[in-house]
Amino acid sequence: MPERSMKNMFLAPIRHLILVIVGFKGEAHGYEILKEIEKITCGTWKPSHGNIYTMLGKMVEEGLLEPKEEYHGKRKLIKYTLTEKGWDYLREANELALQSLYISIQYHEALRKKLEELGYGRELAREAILEYLKVLDRVCDILDAKRRALREMLDEKGESKEGKKEG
After folding, report:
1. Integer Cα distance of 152 and 91 in angstroms
2. Which of 34, 86, 104, 108 would staple 64 via disulfide (CB 3.0–4.6 Å)?
3. Strand blocks (E) in 8-142
4. Interval 15-53: pLDDT, tens
5. Who's near 40: CB < 8 A, 6+ residues apart?
6. CB under 8 A, 24+ apart: contacts of 61-68
């Protein structure tokens, strides 16, 4: 994939990515966020300092992030934390991501088949297949855990709704 296309893939979700990073870390400063984005994208994209700090400023104005100034000697460091509005945004985005996961998988498989039909498919090396299986196993583990948690939630709701479980 051309380098320009790879970079453009990450422009849209940067806002969400910043919120995820700050949410997981509890607080983070701009350079720390920049390095995390570079790590998450496996080094294929590193936003400029200007882009990150402009985005952080907009997110503060929108009430998604709260800045806190710290001083280390003469050096001023601004750390960002999520506001209630930021957490709400992440919750809604996470629910949407979960709902769209199934559709994304369907599109991925349909595209793979179409590429094969058009002669653009490729033979996967053994190492690639093994890596793909590891990823799928992790996804299955996550989904199995989520399924169990949701079933437990349903059981609990049934208990509180009817007072007691039937036994």
Report:
1. 20
2. 86
3. 28-29, 65-72, 75-82
4. 888 999 999 999 999 999 999 999 988 888 888 889 899
5. 17
6. 64/19, 64/89, 65/18, 65/19, 65/22, 68/27
